[in-house]
Structure formats: C-alpha cells, structure tokens
Amino acid sequence: MSDATTRYAITLVVNGVVREAEVPARRLLSDCLRHDLGLTGTHVGCEHGVCGACTVLLDGEPVRSCLTFAVTVDGHEITTVEGLARDGEPSPVQRAFTECHGLQCGFCTPGFLCTATAFLRENPTPTDEEVLEAVSGNLCRCTGYQNIVKAVHRAAEIQAELPTEPQPGLLQAENGSGDSGERGNTA
Amino acid sequence: MTTKLFGEPVRRREDARLVTGQGRYLDDLGPGALAAAFVRSPHAHARIRDIDVSAALDVDGLVAIYTWEDLPGALAEPLPLLIPHPALTHGRTAYPLAKDVVRHVGEPIVMVVAEDRYIAEDACALIDVEYEFLKPVVGVEEAVQGVHLVHEDVPGNVGAHMVQEVPSRDGRSAAEAIAAAPHTLEFRLDIERSACMPLEGKGVYARWDADDQSLRVYSSTQTSTSVRMAVAAKLGLPLPKVEVIAPDVGGGFGVKIVHPWPEEILIPWAARLLDREIKWTEDRREHFVSSAHERAQVQHVRVGFDDEGRVLGLDVTILHDNGAYTPYGIIVPIITSTQLLGPYKIGAYRVEFSSIYTNTVQVTPYRGAGRPQGVFCMERTMDRVAAYLGRDRTEVRAANFIGPDEFPYDQGLIFQDGRPLIYDSGNYPESLRMLKELIGWDSFPEMKARAAADGRRIGIGVGCYVEGTGVGPYEGGHVQVTSDGRVHVSTGLTSQGQGHETVFAQIAATELGVPIEKVSVVTGDTRRFGYAVGTFASRAAVMSGNAIALACRKVREKALRIAADALEADPRDLEITDGIVHVAGTPSASIPLATVAVLSNPLRYAFDEETKRATQFSGASSMDRPPVDEGEEPGLEGRDYYSPIRSTFASGMHAAIVETDPETAEITILRYAVVHDCGKLINPMIVEGQIHGGVAQGVGGALYEKMVYDEYGQLLNASFMDFLMPYATEVPRIETAHLETPSPLNPLGIKGAGEAGVIPVSAVIASAVEDAEAIPIDRMPISPSDLHTLRLRLAR
Ligand code: FES
Ligand code: FES
C-alpha cells in the first residue's frame, strides 16, 4: 500500500496563485485541482481522456487534467475556468458563451472555455473550419454544438474589439516563467 | 402585464456562475465527505456464492463495507416499482445491493466507504465474490423463446404484454381493414440501444445532523421531492426530517428521473449510521453499466392503404427489451405504441407489445422516451407506402394528416398518463408547407440530378411527429415578495440545464410587472417547495410555468388590494410597472411593491426604516378590522398548482439532405431543417437550444450510437472511446422555423419542448439515406459499414 499512500509535496501556480499540495503519486490533476485545491470548476465527464470536460491550460496549452498526474506538473502553471475572468470581468470567451447560449447544463463548459481560450490566442481570426476543428475534441451532450461554434466566433470578435491586453494565464505561458502576472502570489 | 419578457430571447441567468466555474454540481459539494465505491457484478447472470471482504479490511483509510445482509428493514427489500400498470404482470426490481443473484453486468453487490474514492476503490478491488454462473439471456428475440430465464419466476421472460386496438370509424378491426385494403405491405424494423449519457453522471451526497436528527441529501436527480419520500420511507424517518436538494445538474435526459437509485438510499443510510458525511459520484463506466439504456425494439408492421396512400389499417407488434428490471414500468413501450400515430388519422389501429427481460442494463426513458421508435415505425411506413404507390412522400403524409379544424382530436387510445390520447391543437399542413419551403423540397429532384451528374449521391428525407408533453399530475409554484422588493420564486421540479431559472423568472417578471433582476428562482429544493412530480416528458415549462403564473396572479391580486387601500384607489385602476404599483394614467399616485410587501405583514417590531410603516402605531391599519383580516394571511406571497386535464401535444417536422459516399459509404448530413410547434414560446433562444441538443442526440442515435452487448451480456463499448457520441464535427447546422399554435389547455398556451428535437431524427435520416441509395433502410443506427453491407447484399 505504500505506493498508494506515500505523499509528495508539489507546488503549482494556479490562476496566478502559488498553491501547495501533498498528493499521492496516483492523484490525477483533475482530482488535485477539484478536491485538494477546492477549484471545482474543472469537471470530470469520463476520466478517460475523451470528453474534454477536464481541460485546463498547462503553461498555456490545453491538457486533459484527468490524464495528467498531479505530481508530473509540479512547478508548472495552470489556468482553470476560475482563472479566465479578469478583474471580476468575464473574459471574451466567457461573455461570448453567455451571449450565444453556448451552454445548457454547463458541465462541459469549462473544458470548452479553456480550449477556446487557448485556440483564440493562437488564432485570433479563425475560419469556420478552424473553429469546428478546435472544438471537435470536446463532448457536449446538451447544446448540439451550434451555439458553441457561434460563441467561439463571437469571442474572436469581442477579443478583436478589446484593447490588446494579454489573456490571463497566457502571459506567463509566453514568458515561460513562474511570475503570476497582475494578481501576485497571494496564496 | 406591463413588463413584457414572456416570449423574449432573454439571456440566461444561470450562465454567470456556470461560465466562471462557480456552479455547484454534486461532486463539488462536501469537500470533506467520505467516499463510497461499489463492487459491481462483472457477470451478466450469476448466483452469488460467497463474498469475502477479509483482504480489504487492512486497507488504510477504509471506514465500512456493506453487503445486502447488512441492510435493515425496508432497505433490504427490492427497490420500488415506480409505475405499476395492470399489463405489467411480472414487474421486477433490483435490491439496492444484490441478494443471491445478479442479473446484469454492473449490478451493485458491495458498498465500500473510505476516506477517499481512491482508497474505496482499492478496497473494492480486494473484495472477492464467488459466483456460480447462470446462462445469460441477451437479445430480445432469444429472450422471448424463454429457454433461459432472467428471473426464475417470470416465464418466457415476459414482463408485460399489452394490446390496444382502435377500430375504424365504420367499425372494422385493423385486421379486417388491412384485409379489405387495396394495397398491403408487411415488414420488420429494428432499433438499437442507446442511452442518455449526460456529461455528469449520477451522484449522491448525504449528511446526517445528529443534533437535529435530520438528514440532508443532495442528489443529481430529476425529482428531489420523490427521492425525499423514498429516502424517508426506506430509512423509516419522518418526512419533515429529510430534505433533498438537486444542485446544479450536468444533464439528465431521463436517466435521472429513475429513483431511488440504490445509491440514493444507501448513501443516506450509511451517512446516518456512521454519522459522517458520505458522497458517491458515479464514474463513466458505472454510468454505462449500472444506470439505464433505452430505444431497443423489434417491430413487425402490417399496413393496408388506398391509392392515395391513406392508411386504412395498421397493425404493429413490438418486442421491447426492458433489460433486467422494470422500475419505471412499461412507460416506454406505452409511449411508443400511442405516439406512433403521430399527426395522422389512421383507419384502424392495433398495437401489441411484449416487454421482455434480458440480462442487460435496465431500460427506462431517454429523451423522447419511446417516441423515436414509434415515429421511426410510422414514418418508415409512410415512406414505404409512398414508394409502393410511386407518390411523393410528403403527399402521402398530407393525405393522412389530421386537419387543422379537427381539434381536439381523439386518437381513441390511453396515453402514458392514463388519460385519453386527445390532441389539443396543431396545424400539420402548415408545418409541412413551412418545412418544404425551408428545405427546398420541391426543387430537390433537380439538385439530386445535378449531384448525380457529378457522380455524387444525395437524398432527402422527412419525418413528422406529435409529442405528448406536459403530463400531469401537477406542479406547484410559490412566489413571495419580500420587503426589499425582491421576488422569490420556487417550484419543486428540478433543472438539468433547461434554463428554468431564466424562463420561470421571465414568467414571474411578466405576470408581476417587476424587473427580471428582482426575481430569483429556486428549483428542486424540498426545503423551498415540497410538492412536485419532477422533470421529464417535456413538462417543466407547461407544468411549473403555469403554476408559477397562477401563483403570481394571486400575489398580484393581493398586492393590488393592499395598494388600493394605501392609495385609496380602486384595485381595478392599478397597474404594476417596474415594481411600482400605480394608478393607471396617474404615475404619481404610486407605491413600490416593496412597501406593499411591508404593509402586507402587520408588525410589532420594526427592523429598519421601511418596516416602521407596518408597526402598530404607524396608523397603517384600520381600527375597524383586525390587522390580518379574515381570509387573509400575512405576507405578500402566493402558492398555486397547475394540474391539467390531459397532456398538451406539441408537434414538428424535420427534413434532411444527406450525401452518401459511393466508395466509403460514409453518410454526411448536408442540411437539416426543423419546423417546430410547441405552442407559445417563453424564450425562443432556449427553445432553439433545446432543439439543437435534441437533434444532436438524434443524429447520434441515427448514425453512431449503439450499446454493443456480446452473447455473454458484456457491454463491449462501455466508454466514450467506443460508444460514439457526436462531436461538433458530426452535427450539422440546424435550420429552424417556429409555428406557434397555442394550447387551449393552459393559461399560458404553452406546450413542452425538451424532447422534441430528438424524436424524428432516425426516421428522417433513414428516409434520406434510402432516397440517396434506393435501398430500403429498416434498422437504426446505420453506420458506413452497415450501409456498405446493404449495398453488397443488394448487388448480389
Ligand atoms: S474527464 Fe478528462 S477527458 Fe473526460
Ligand atoms: S452544456 Fe451540458 S454537456 Fe454541454
């Protein structure tokens, strides 16, 4: 049983805040975020890497937190759905999902929001095809996707209208540093 | 009604929390709770010889292990049979934990409680169950032979057998009408199993308050009131000591209306016993093998018709696979048999179904609840009739439509609510006209010819349905205006993403004349509203929507009465606008609803400036009457119920254009059009969303999703990897048009919309593929390899 019970101290920068946890080697990042750090916005729909509900940004890149052991991301930066808003204002992607009715039960939504956030950073003016491709790794059982696709386009529009400020959780990614940006390390 | 929000595409009030990760789903609650996990049967049919837990006892962090033998009293009895029916002569339900025999892979046998889920699963893995294998019964046609039995005491594996027959107007039976018809056809249809598959599985979290001797249960259920009654009964607790709350729920689609799930009574029981908070969150594999499936049926059809394609007689025999247990009775095959008739008047109709046990997961309603199968049957029939006569498929349908002036139309059957199947309203010819225009039906042959010239195969398909929505018995609403002017609305039924907080707020804001920002809505919380039925059968908007409207009308009437007193005006001259009661045409003579709320509750003690007005020396009350007048109650609140005489009947028609690849047999949906009539729309944006989601599930059922059981009763594709739900790339853009034929049955004139989108999709896709390929399509779903096989067979 020692494998299962030996705990490892890890330090993560989550949504710009330094967080520490002691986890067994087998602890999934999704469980670590949800249950050790209390960030329950990241959802688990399958725990086998298919639905994308658990998608978070690891150093700015979307990853499936249910396929990632928490110990393997020690020292890295993570952005979850809780970290997408800035200064209490919803991000362009969050706004667009609301405007376009891109969610119903909302369970898949955090995964789509994280996926779309990273996608629009790479590709701020996507075509229809590119948007479809970008969201085609995430399952939603409620919306039929039409409004999700619409929302990603709308988010691109909103983003284009904004003064060019970096997205939360992304600045760090580009810098590749542990500096957590404007919110400071107020763990 | 001065603040018109009813009918507007108001943005959802749920979204602010859901897009920021602030939703509270079941597994987000109780961070310190113990976790439960289950040992589930790996075999489809076996007798339990022995359960050895000794190896698990050493696991660090283990708290408790329970088997059936540990269960006291009513908990040790089989789970309730929720919907008894005289035709269900052999209803059978499972024990919360298996006693002696397991009847499907996934049936729970042992419950383990531990410090966390990882540890609970470690312990599960160390529990050794010894089985004696019994012959698994898989596939409805094998089962009905009755060679091997799922339940020893259910001969032939037949749970229920039911016949309904409606003679023609001239008194002929279906058999006579078919025999006398100029043309007859006979064929067989097959529909595979699928499942609801909400992205969030089930879950239960319970905490016992030892000081208060009360229990609070959170469940991702579609019916918290009924779970509450089940928990109280099973645990022998007084009802007021049990509260059940459905928090944010990540989709339901029917599977969460079934209750109590074993976990819904076991977790509360253990929480009380151990006096510890306990939570169980279903994982995806558990959901596949231990929740519920639907759809699987084999249908035999005989139809007689005239030269116009009018159906003179229809005889349908259905073999319905109900899986291992029947907790939800025979609702699904009843709906199939009755809703099969769709928008048509059929000469004479006979339908017979047998509901058959197999060693597979139980079958209970999944969005559409038997309708997709019924519609598949009827619409395939219409297409065959058209093909036989060489007539246009829409013409044959139109020849059979119930006319717009024939409502109410009595189909002569008994519906799922035990009441006559009488359609309240509809306009089918107009729907069809709109649909043909939307998809370009009449110009399609040209398009097809052009495609053919390019070596492409395309086809067009159509499907019509009528959906009984808003079934009773009732729902209620409570509306309270507090002294801060806020409006608190509650209703007992639950939400799984339908946007109830928004639409019910729209109704309340419109009825009361208050800004929607002042309105808050609570659903599925027995602390707030104890009487309810639940969310299913596209009933929430109709039932709770109307109940809330009626409750608001009571509140409004009372508010106007009190305001009239205060303003010395006639209540009939008063209006409420933006939360202010005022004399129509004289805005200065006004009083805020907040103040009315204060005045409605005579006070002894003031707690702020506003409430001083209601105290005894303020001069507010008349000396000639008691402070609370006869027949009055303190407070500005109202409660009312809506209980309909019968269901409402929404309807719709879909059309699709598909392309089939001549080489790979890949099927692509090029266009998908929907005309939908659910009566008055409360929020068109939300209705549209419901349609999109329904169609997407329908596309899954038509082209991708099936539960693959092997001969041993093993579910071979119990993961999202292998059970193919559509991604964004598989769902076409859906073009919609709305017709609003109000229901005469309820004050708001609404019908339900929740299930509509999914209902005709398999029929539509089959119709379109058949048109593209000129191969009869008689089973769903159809995959490229299925189509390929059909082509080969036809070529031979
Ligand atoms: S929960 Fe991680 S992909 Fe489904
Ligand atoms: S909104 Fe429910 S799963 Fe996507």
From TrEMBL, chain A:
Segments for region (Disordered): 162-187
Domain 2Fe-2S ferredoxin-type span(s) in chain numbering: 8-84
Source superkingdom: Bacteria
Keyword set includes Iron-sulfur: yes
Database matches in Pfam families: Fer2, Fer2_2
KW Iron (keyword) present: yes
Key words, A-Z: 2Fe-2S, Iron, Iron-sulfur, Metal-binding, Oxidoreductase
Gene3D superfamilies found in the cross-reference section: 3.10.20.30, [2Fe-2S]-binding domain
Listed InterPro entries: 2Fe-2S-bd, 2Fe-2S-bd_dom_sf, 2Fe-2S_ferredoxin-like_sf, 2Fe-2S_ferredoxin-type, 2Fe2S_fd_BS, Beta-grasp_dom_sf, Diverse_Oxidoreductases
Protein name (Swiss-Prot/TrEMBL): (2Fe-2S)-binding protein
Organism, scientific name: Microtetraspora glauca
Taxonomic lineage from the root: Bacteria, Bacillati, Actinomycetota, Actinomycetes, Streptosporangiales
From TrEMBL, chain B:
SMART domains for this protein: Ald_Xan_dh_C
Enzyme Commission code(s) on record: 1.2.5.3
Residue ranges of every copy of the Aldehyde oxidase/xanthine dehydrogenase a/b hammerhead domain listed in the record: 20-135
Disordered: region residues: 616-637
Keyword field: Molybdenum, Oxidoreductase
Superkingdom of source: Bacteria
SUPFAM superfamilies: CO dehydrogenase molybdoprotein N-domain-like (SSF54665), Molybdenum cofactor-binding domain (SSF56003)
Keyword Oxidoreductase in record: yes
Gene3D superfamilies, A to Z: Aldehyde oxidase/xanthine dehydrogenase, a/b hammerhead, Aldehyde oxidase/xanthine dehydrogenase, molybdopterin binding domain
Oxidoreductase listed as a keyword: yes
Molecular function GO labels: carbon-monoxide oxygenase activity
PANTHER family: ALDEHYDE OXIDASE 1-RELATED, XANTHINE DEHYDROGENASE
Protein name, UniProt field: Aerobic carbon-monoxide dehydrogenase large subunit
Provenance organism: Microtetraspora glauca
